[in-house]
UniProtKB/TrEMBL annotation:
Domain of life: Bacteria
Purpose of the protein: Involved in bacillithiol (BSH) biosynthesis. May catalyze the last step of the pathway, the addition of cysteine to glucosamine malate (GlcN-Mal) to generate BSH.
Family (UniProt): Belongs to the BshC family.
Pfam family, one: Rossmann-like_BshC
InterPro entries: Bacillithiol_biosynth_BshC, CC_BshC, Rossmann-like_BshC
Domain Bacillithiol biosynthesis BshC C-terminal coiled-coil: 381-540
Organism this protein belongs to: Shouchella xiaoxiensis
Protein name: Putative cysteine ligase BshC
Domain annotation Bacillithiol biosynthesis BshC N-terminal Rossmann-like: ranges: 1-379
EC number of the protein: 6.-.-.-
Top-level enzyme category: ligase
């Protein structure tokens, strides 16, 4: 394995400004990683705060991790967290099937690396923690996986019916999950670890009861030796701990709504699109009604759920929090707030999209007398199989061109350089000459009768179709002659720019494990001692 770091030129959008043009966004954040001393400042700020619920939280973490296999590293991290000055590096993601796309794993790896680094720098315990967004109820965002066949990616969906339940509550259909896993592994090139990986996932499918449960077991399998801790936001026991802060959110709802709108307006004024873009009545909380997770709204002093008869006064909602905290959950605005209240978070690891919405929340945080949690961009990686590396090297091309979506143009340019047949030029000339030659024929037909004119139009289209047919057959003849090399190009495109998307957004972690080895994540962590700001290439 060889690692290459690309420069900051590979960055785009808000992330590029956050890293390269920090002054553009610095007023939207309380801490900037580009500033000297931000880490010590954050530690000192945390030391002045009280986390009176910490003992309950640690007890919940112990209950969660005691049942996991190979949990020694996790239990050691929980022991560290009991210390008064302990802090955490937090990241999180929805409970995707088979862990979701690779960027989920890269978030976890970033948290692990940064926790180790900050622990050395601060000389205090720093623990990595993964926030499983089990409260999320959007099933379509988590019940799929991409697999390959004949150098083409396809999306495989788990056959299950969304019913408004969260990922923590929604039971997995075991038979359908087993079928999905079987389909997924059919697309794998057989390696020495393929069978073992499949058996492992099938075992998890048999034991897991819910989407969150399955996700937890898969992620723990990847990082069991690193002691990455997991907190399921949909856990009813966690809701009981969060109860006081849900009340505070409800008490401050008008101010929260006002500051959320203001924060997004400030972000948009800097030239960016709205990352959240919700309506002003959104209360940024969900309530479980009839066993379905429903959005709460707040307007004119009243809480309500749209398209239902459910309405609540502030006092009634506060009483419901007291009696049934398990019915409440956060959205994209209040989740960061809850994490800040709940955990001594030294930093949060975010993807580019998350970074954008975090940039709107500083005023929301200040409403609760919090500073905005420091935000760290996650690791961004493209892995390069050996055969792809050999192909690119042999053609004297650059990996970055493929990452930027130029791979198809490279393929066509190479193909055109291999022959001297002027297929396109001659075909275009033929069509132009035919158009000119056929025009008098159509005109004559039009003079004779409307029916003949219609026939002449169809005649023209038929002949043009035949010319295009021959053009395409000539193209295919050239492609057939150079099929071996073109297949290598297709393979490079398949791996480096799948479905014309960044690899980390399409490819599943098990796909990488299959070709890179079951210890690939551990080996990467051994090599990465500091998270680079730019994109990283990993040559297998």
């Amino acid at each position: 394995m060889r690692i290459e770091e690309l420069g900051n030129d590979s960055l785009t959008g808000v992330l590029a400004d956050y890293i390269v043009n920090a002054d553009q966004l610095s007023d939207l954040f309380s801490y900037m990683p580009s500033d000297n001393g931000w880490l010590e400042l954050r530690r000192n700020d945390l030391s002045e705060r009280s986390f009176s619920h910490k003992e309950e939280l640690v007890s919940l973490l112990e209950q969660t991790h005691q049942t996991l296999p190979n949990n020694q590293a996790c239990m050691e991290q929980i022991h560290k967290l009991k210390q008064a000055n302990a802090t955490v590096v937090v990241t999180g993601q929805q409970a995707g099937i088979l862990a979701g796309p690779l960027y989920t794993v890269y978030k976890a790896m970033t948290a692990i690396v940064q926790a180790k680094q900050y622990e050395q720098m601060l000389d205090v315990p720093v623990v990595p923690l993964f926030w499983i967004a089990g409260e999320d109820h959007d099933l379509d965002e988590i019940r799929f996986v991409y697999t390959t066949k004949d150098l083409a990616w396809s999306k495989k969906m788990l056959h299950d019916e969304a019913n408004g339940q969260s990922a923590t509550d929604k039971e997995l259909p075991e038979g359908e999950l087993v079928e999905l896993i079987n389909q997924f592994f059919k697309g794998f090139a057989e390696t020495k670890q393929t069978r073992r990986l499949k058996e492992t996932t099938l075992a998890f499918a048999k034991d897991a009861k819910t989407y969150s449960d399955f996700f937890l077991h898969v992620m723990h399998h990847f990082f069991k030796d690193e002691g990455l801790l997991y907190l399921d936001s949909g856990d009813e026991s966690l809701r009981k701990i969060e109860q006081p802060f849900f009340k505070e959110i409800i008490e401050k709802m008008p101010l929260l709504q006002q500051k959320q709108v203001l924060g997004e307006e400030n972000f948009v004024r800097k030239g960016y699109a709205k990352p959240i873009g919700t309506d002003a009545s959104n209360a940024h909380l969900f309530y479980k009604l009839d066993n379905k997770r429903r959005r709460l709204d707040f307007e004119d002093g009243q809480f309500f759920i749209k398209d239902t008869s459910a309405t609540f006064s502030k006092e009634e909602l506060l009483q419901l929090v007291e009696e049934h905290p398990e019915r409440f959950s956060n959205n994209v605005v209040t989740r960061p707030l809850m994490q800040e209240w709940l955990l001594p978070t030294v930093a949060f690891v975010a993807g580019p999209g998350e970074l954008a919405y975090w940039a709107t929340l500083k005023d929301v945080f200040s409403s609760f007398e919090f500073k905005l949690t420091p935000v760290l961009p996650r690791l961004s990686v493209t892995f390069i199989p050996r055969q792809v590396e050999r192909h690119i090297y042999s053609k004297e091309e650059q990996v970055t061109d493929y990452l930027m979506g130029k791979g198809e143009a490279l393929k066509q340019s190479w193909l055109e350089s291999q022959h001297s047949f002027q297929i396109e030029a001659v075909a275009d000339q033929t069509l132009a000459a035919f158009e000119k030659a056929h025009l008098p024929f159509r005109e004559l037909a039009g003079e004779m009768s409307p029916t003949l004119h219609d026939m002449s139009i169809k005649n023209k289209a038929f002949i043009e179709d035949q010319i295009e047919f021959l053009r395409n057959r000539m193209r295919k003849e050239i492609e057939f002659r150079y099929a071996t090399e073109l297949t290598k190009y297709e393979e490079a495109l398949t791996w480096l720019r799948p479905l014309n998307q960044p690899q980390e957004r399409i490819v599943n972690p098990f796909t990488l494990l299959n070709i890179g080895g079951e210890d690939i994540f551990s080996r990467m962590l051994d090599e990465i001692h500091e998270i680079p700001t730019g994109h990283m290439l990993v040559y297998l």
